[in-house]
């Protein structure tokens, strides 16, 4: 993560500029709630449009579970609105404080990709305002190219004003969680596919410092009885100050990993828990990112094909260990074969590994480049939505169809990520702005 202080405008100003066709090239980028780890939501050479004021729920059909909201609405508010009727988002990320527009722009995934795919798989339609001054209603059957480019398109196709999504029916918000310890990666891969078949949700925590890759597989399903309403409560804990250095060093990580393993093994193997604890544990700690120190963190997430995935994951973890840099939060999960409609969707059939590192400058950047190479050489990809330093060739190898998005990109919209990666890959800096419908 890097400090950024871009110019900020409110939606009415951006809408007026677009409707009068006065937006300059590369001058705009929509901004959600600032939960992205990279620079795909930054535009230091232009302005960002703070969409959080556009947060109204516009309609909800309790029969179908289709909800329409302005793009700045938080998933927290969508959950609260739909829960009393027995509905929940089909896909949620690790925090409920993301906007609807951000969830679509990043085509987020969750713990149930093996069953539900990405967030984009559940988008019915959205309204996109472009620099031609027009509002484009986009769906799978209407303005289809724009629809596909916008899902996972990192906000580059225009200003999303509102969207309709399909929620899934659930018996309650609560989760029946099961914790299954595994001794090493081999044991995880032996049980991963079966766990996905039997459960709605599945994700593994890995002790990155252990040589064998020990960890805990957490699976879950919605409880048949439990909470049907939500309460708005902030984090119970907080990191009140910014420490002058990262506290997430090797001694801390060894103690934390041992304590976490002990805690999960001591708890009941199966327990009834609230949805916040299961899906959004970090939301309980305000300003948790301060623990990484004043230079912040880098997150590396890669996906690799199922064939040979065990060896690739082992190589990634071993490379991090050899570098002397520990990952505070190391997550491993299996992606299913459900294909997203998005052009640049990151998830694909296989396994994905996520590692978080305190930013130690060039030492960390060198490690991340090594991790990139391992993933790409295995036929995998690196997640652009959580990136602030990916080289252009890694992006191109991860997403060989990136040019299709560039064709649909609105020339008034630009991000630091796109400028850094695709901008150096294009033969020139012009955008063709083809309709591509």
UniProtKB/TrEMBL annotation:
Keywords: FAD, Flavoprotein. Residues 1-170 form the FAD-binding PCMH-type domain. It comes from the Bacteria. Gene3D superfamilies: 3.30.465.10. GO terms for molecular function: FAD binding; oxidoreductase activity, acting on the CH-OH group of donors, oxygen as acceptor. It holds the Pfam family FAD_binding_4. This is FAD-linked oxidase.
